[in-house]
Amino acid sequence: MPDPVFPHRHLLGIEGLSPAEINHLLDRSDHYVALNRAAEKTTDSLRGRTIVNLFFENSTRTRTSFELAAKRHGAHVINMQVESSSVAKGETLIDTAVTLNAMHPDVLVVRHPDSGAVKLLADKVNCGVVNGGDGSHEHPTQALLDALTIRRRKGKLNGLLVAICGDVLHSRVARSNFLLLLTMGARVRIIAPRTLIPSQVDRMGVEVFTDMAAGLKDVDIVMMLRVQNERMRGSYIPSVREYFHFFGLDRAKLAQAKPDALIMHPGPMNRGTEIDSDVADDVERSVIREQVELGVAVRMAILEILALNNVAAPARKAAL
């Protein structure tokens, strides 16, 4: 039987999810936090199911987290090495979808450098698909684990003031977090150099700042973003040193936030570029390690829900 609160076959993004659906995913994720901290961490809820991690971009945290989540449910896990697969020999994404579909996996977790590619693949397979990050579009599981981290520390999302700082232009994490936080009633500020602010982003309902001191004033959450040099075509920042001087998080800038403001970063961190080590390692205020931990619980919840939702899904032929 499909989950009555979250009946979707796929998780392709935060966009379009209701507050009730988001809360349901967070509540289910909360259920697995204690399990992951126990001596016996496994269940058999997905025993006999097959989860395929199909990553067209390099990843450590996300792929490993999904792999661990699936194994803790007792599922079979296949990690496809794209660089040594038929994709590297010229196979198209749709051909890959047809091939995988014929093997009857239960859930595909897909990361791809192009926005929309995961949706294209999801349209061609019978199983559930989780977006592990597509281009600069969305990274829904990261936003959910960020939300779970905040909710467990602050007790709520509604009414909080969240600052998302750095390379907003290229960040799928930022976009998914905008969508989730605004849906759940939080206020969102972005702080970045003008060259790294998406055009018309204010139409999404966020407040835009180009000065860290002003943008961090009285915020509850400071979420730093990685500078994504691999997505930059051209010069977006003058130098790493100048970027850190104006937009890197250090003690002086953090002093503008509330005294109990939490520090977050989706990782991997570029210390000395986006964030100072002294701030990143602050055991009282930094929840960066907690984000990594809670990512496993979030992905356990999502894999379980989607695998069970797709049990009775009608078979569809993957079209070329």
List its traits.
5-stranded parallel beta sheet; alpha/beta; single chain; 4-stranded parallel beta sheet; 320 residues; 36% helix; disordered C terminus
In brief, what are we looking at here?
The protein has 320 residues and is of the alpha/beta class. Helices cover 36% and strands 14% of the residues.
- N-to-C order of helices and strands: HEHEHEHEHEHEEHEHHEHH
Main sheet: strands, sense, barrel:
5 strands, parallel
- In helices, the fraction of residues equals 25-40%
The total of beta strands comes to: 9
Spans of 5+ residues with little confidence (pLDDT < 50)? 314-320
What class do helices, strands and sheet pairing give? Answer: alpha/beta
Structure in words:
The chain has 11 helices and 9 strands. It has helices at 19-37, 61-72, 93-102, 117-122, 140-154, 172-183, 212-215, 240-247, 251-254, 277-280, 288-309; strands at residues 50-55, 76-81, 107-112, 128-134, 161-165, 187-191, 207-209, 221-224, 262-264. The protein is globular. Helix 2 packs across helix 11 and helix 5 (140-154) packs across helix 6 (172-183). Helix 6 links the parallel strand 5 and strand 6 (187-191). By secondary structure, the protein is α/β, with parallel strands linked by helices.
